[in-house]
Amino acid sequence: MRTGTLAIGGATLLLVAGFDPVVTQAQQYPTQDIRFICAFPPGSGADVLVRYFADKVRPLTGKNIIVENRSGAGGNIAIEYVSRAKPDGYTIFVHGASGTAASMSLFKNPPVDVAKTIQVVSTINRQPFMVLVDAKSPYRTLADLTAAMKPKGNKASYATAAPFGTVVGEVYKLGSGVQAVEVPYKNAIDSLNDQLSGAIDYAVHDPVYALAEQRKGDLRILAVSTAERLKANPDFPTLKELGVSDLNMMGWWAAMVPQGTPKAATDQINKWFDQVVGSEETGKFLASFGGDQLIMPPDKAQELFLQEIKNWADYVRIARIVPAG
């Protein structure tokens, strides 16, 4: 009886003194190493981006940050891994939030419902897909390309290497009257020789590849998929301003955690990423990937994520994409 009284008294003293063990543990976050999960293999463009943020966030945490590459299944291996990870703030998914949302519609049986398992805590960037032609071609504008492709009908062709490219390519055709046939490639670089030889008329690819090939002088960018021009690409007109589409087809990256992660941890993660993303150095780094810095409150970011899930259901329908699996 006396022991019970002492135990209750001890707990009371702790609470009165403000030493609630649960609160204290949350306030001390982080107390151990943190893992950044990358959905693509080492050396990939995504891996470069994830490791950049690991290097920049590390000194802010006072802990080690370990990058784990969990690639495969179109990103689903990493998505499922993060969804089932302990929600304690020590597993952070640095990945395309738009791609994570798209997984719900691109696969017949996605392993998890990301709307219920993934929480966006900080946004990183936004970037478009791009319509490309051979730099030696006579097509200086999208109108030039459209005028040349219409008479060819279904004998015209274009390259893609990602579902987003398929969507943008289909939207361009619907808005312009072009009837070109899509030729999918495993990687964007695999389509280069065919495009330069004239076997492929044009392409719709990601900005990392597109900008690199334009800098080399091999390809020319005619239009981008976002509804407004980006600071990183102010010279490239949008499909919207060219009268092709009203859609804002934007890829965006974020730092995400398993739902149920304590607010003390998500608030801290948000502060770390906002500080890094908002720097001039990071702005230049993200511009090299063809995108702009994107900073928004976590609640708004989660709203955007949930809307993106709905958007991709529409995109898959518009582009007549057959879900995999």
General description of the model:
This protein has 325 residues and is an alpha/beta fold. It has two domains: 32-127 and 250-318, Bordetella uptake gene, domain 1 (D-Maltodextrin-Binding Protein, domain 2, 3-Layer(aba) Sandwich), CATH 3.40.190; 130-224, 3-Layer(aba) Sandwich (D-Maltodextrin-Binding Protein, domain 2). The protein has 13 helices and eleven strands. The protein has a six-stranded mixed β-sheet, sandwiched between helices. Strands 7-6-8-5-9 form a five-stranded mixed β-sheet, sandwiched between helices. The radius of gyration is 23 Å and the shape is globular. The model is unreliable at 1-25 (pLDDT under 50).
CATH T-level topology of the largest domain:
D-Maltodextrin-Binding Protein, domain 2
**Going across the major beta sheet, what is the strand order?**
2-1-3-10-4-11
First and last CA, distance: 62 Å
Helix and strand content put the structural class at alpha/beta
Give me the number of helical elements: 13
Helical fraction: 40-55%
The CATH homologous superfamily of the largest domain: Bordetella uptake gene, domain 1
The residue-averaged pLDDT reads: 91
Using only C-alpha atoms, the radius of gyration works out to 23 Å
| Level-2 CATH architecture of the largest domain | 3-Layer(aba) Sandwich
CATH classification class of the largest domain: Alpha Beta
Low-confidence stretches: 1-25
Number of domains: 2
